[in-house]
Give the backbone structure.
Amino acid sequence: MVAQVIDGKAFAAKVRAQVADQVAKLKEENGITPGLAVVLVGEDPASQVYVRSKGKQTVEVGMNSYEHKLDVDTSEEDLLALIDKLNNDPAVHGILVQLPLPKHLNEDLVINSIDPAKDVDGFHISNVGLLGTGQKSMVPCTPLGCLMMLRDYHGSLSGMDAVVIGRSNIVGKPMAQLLLGDSCTVTIAHSRTKDLPDVVRRADIVVAAVGRPEMVPGDWIKEGATVIDVGINRIERDGKNKLVGDVDYASAAERAGAITPVPGGVGPMTIACLLANTLTACCRSNGLPEPEGLTA
Ligand code: GUN
């Protein structure tokens, strides 16, 4: 079997176009412009690239973008004061604090100081609890993007066997909750899982989110399974820098029914879902109907 390639770049463009349409309508009919505030502490190069990209795409869909760049040695008190100000600013519907934070800042404390209704990352403990109990919440962007692609490809996921490899709070755990919410039978596998190859071989859906380059070989993939590769790993091969996923793409594509490539798979969906979440937060805070197809 040769896998169908799930084009995340094209899908993300479609999601952004839907968001842009809804934003235009909100402005015209309600005089509201959604606003996203992004807070970056320090000068981590990868974080700077992400933040720039988020700001650019936010403006492209017609939303207001507020960037707050703080010194690497900003105190916790000053950061919490900024978050409090953003929590109380009616022009700000979404707040994202770029992670990782410098070591002297308590990440949990900072994230949990964001108003849960504006927590477009879905990392606040209230949103984690709401998602875990099947209630309306803000949903982490990367797993939301994966779910959208799976729903688009399969229609219903009901009754499918899904394996999530990786148990992070940002991807693995919320991904498992979302798949369970769509009535999959879900296994969360991780570095201590016994017989990982056999566990993966049983899956109709494999979501790989471990951060280890090409860790999942093709012979672990059940014939016809759908493979969602969340990994973005920089490696050197033949003297060249290359981006690869957590799945060995070439061998997995020979067995899978469908697969996301790296780059151009899950990656572009994350920011698209951040914009979708900002729109959702804006609609909810104004008592307006939520945008269709852009939520879990
Ligand atoms: N750093 C890397 N990915 C993310 C993300 O999705 N959200 C935040 N806030 N920081 C990140």
Notes: The chain has ten helices and eleven strands.
